[in-house]
Amino acid sequence: MSGDLEKLSQPLATIKDSQIAKLESDLQTERETRKLERFAWVLGCLTLLDTLAFQHMGFVPCTFVFVLTIVLMVVLGRICGCSDIHIILQGAIDGVASLIKKNDDSKQG
Q: Whole-model pTM above 0.90?
């Protein structure tokens, strides 16, 4: 008789476990979505502020602020766990660095 009781209680435990696993998965998805949304808001606000500030700045300060913004976005991308955005921004930084290096090499040679 105790064997029958174990058979009846086991499916109930697996159903609970599957529900707990689904809830944990949903929570993780929600956290990732919020981090991505937070990153998007910060990126949008920084873009707006940069656009407003660039109207009243010269070339050198604009360049400095732009580079600082890109670096901040890379750091924020890492903090928020946005690995795709981090890779894209890192590629953009590498591309700009290679263009600057080619430009410097052509001036020297």
A: no
